[in-house]
Amino acid sequence: MTIWRCPLVLRRPMRGAWRLLAPLSFAIGSAPLVIWRILRDRPSLVVCVEPTLLAAPAAVAAARLVRASCVLHVHDLEPEAAVGAGNGWAGRYVGALAERVARLRRHFDGVVTLSPAMGRELARHGLASSRIHLWPNWIDVRRIARGHDPARADAWRREAGIGDGQRIVLCAGSINRKHAPLLLANAARLLRHRDDLVVVIAGDGPLRADLAAEAADLANVRLLPLQPEEALPALLQFADVHVMPQDPAWDGLALPSRLAGMLASGKPVVITGNADTELGKFLGATARMCRPHDAAALAAAIAQALTPDCPVQARRGRDARWRKALLLDRRRCLNGVVDVLEAVAARQKPGRREWASGATARVVRPQMIVKPGRTDAP
C-alpha cells in the first residue's frame, strides 16, 4: 500500500488543550488529500478509523459525492473519553463538544468496534444497533505460540543483567497512564526480598522517565527498550509470568490489545481490574485478577502465579489460555471484519457472525482471504 503522511501539531507533554489540538490539526492537514484521493479514485468503500473521529467529516462528505459506502472502525471512544476532562465551564464545554462529535458516527453505513460494552456505548449515542458490528483487535496467536527463541532470551538476560536462575515477571507494551506502571513499581518494591524473580518492563511511552525514577533504587526491576515487531513472539515467550496493571478509569470498555499475545504465550497472566468489566468477563478463571490501585494485592498475585502448579493443573491452565487466545486470532477476527466491509460495500446487510466476549473457542478451521490477482495465503 501507499502511505500518505500529513502534518499535525505535537508537543511534549501532550496535556490540556494540546490533546485536542493534535487530532484537530491532523483533520485539517489531511482533509485536502482525503477529498482529492476519494474524488479521483471513486472507491466503492471508504474506511475511517477512530481515533481520530475529527478526520471523518471530510472523508464522509467526499464519499457521498462519489456514492461510496462508509465504514468506521472504532478502536477508542474518543469523544466519550473527553467528557469530564475539565471542571466548571471548561468541562461543560468539552462535554457539549464531545456530544456533537459523537453524532458524526451516525453518518456511517457500518461501524466496527472492539467489544459489546463499546457497542452499547455507541448505541447510547443514537447509532442504530443494526449498523454496529463487534470484532476485537487481533493477533497471529500461532506465531506467538511458536516464538520461543533461546538466543534472544540469553541476549536479553545479558543486556538486563538477569541471572540464569531468576524468573521473569514481564510487563511489555506502551508505558502510559492507562496501564499504571507506577503501581507495578510499587509491587516490585514489596517483592524486593525475592532473589529468585526480576520484574522486566519492556517498552516506551510518556511515563517511562517517571517509571525509571520510581524504580531507580530497586535491584529487582529492569527496563528494556521498545523491541522490534519481529521480536515480539520471543519477548512474550521470554516471560515466566505476564503482568498487566491497569488504571480503573480506563477499565471496562475493551480488551487491551496486548492481552491476546499474553494469552497466546501460554504463560500465567496477572491483571488488575474488576471482575464485572468486559475484561473480567472475558478472562474468567484464565487469569489472576486483583484489585486496582492495590500494590500489595498485585505483589501477592505475582508471587502466587510463580508458585509451580502440578503438571495437570499447569496443562489445563495453558489450554484454557490458548482457547481464549483463539477468540482473538487474526484468522477469525480479520475475516469477520472483511465480511462486514464487503457486505457494506455491496450495500447488503452483513451477517451477524460476531465475536462474543463470553464465548469459548473449541473448533477453529483455517481460512483464506482470496482476492483477485492473489494466490498466496494471508
UniProtKB/TrEMBL annotation:
Domain named Glycosyltransferase subfamily 4-like N-terminal: residues: 9-138
TM segment ranges: 20-39
Coiled coil: none
Pfam families referenced in this protein's UniProt entry, alphabetically: Glyco_trans_1_4, Glyco_trans_4_4
Keywords per UniProt: Glycosyltransferase, Membrane, Transferase, Transmembrane, Transmembrane helix
SUPFAM superfamilies, per the entry: UDP-Glycosyltransferase/glycogen phosphorylase
GO MF term list: glycosyltransferase activity
EC number: 2.4.-.-
Protein name per Swiss-Prot or TrEMBL: Glycosyltransferase
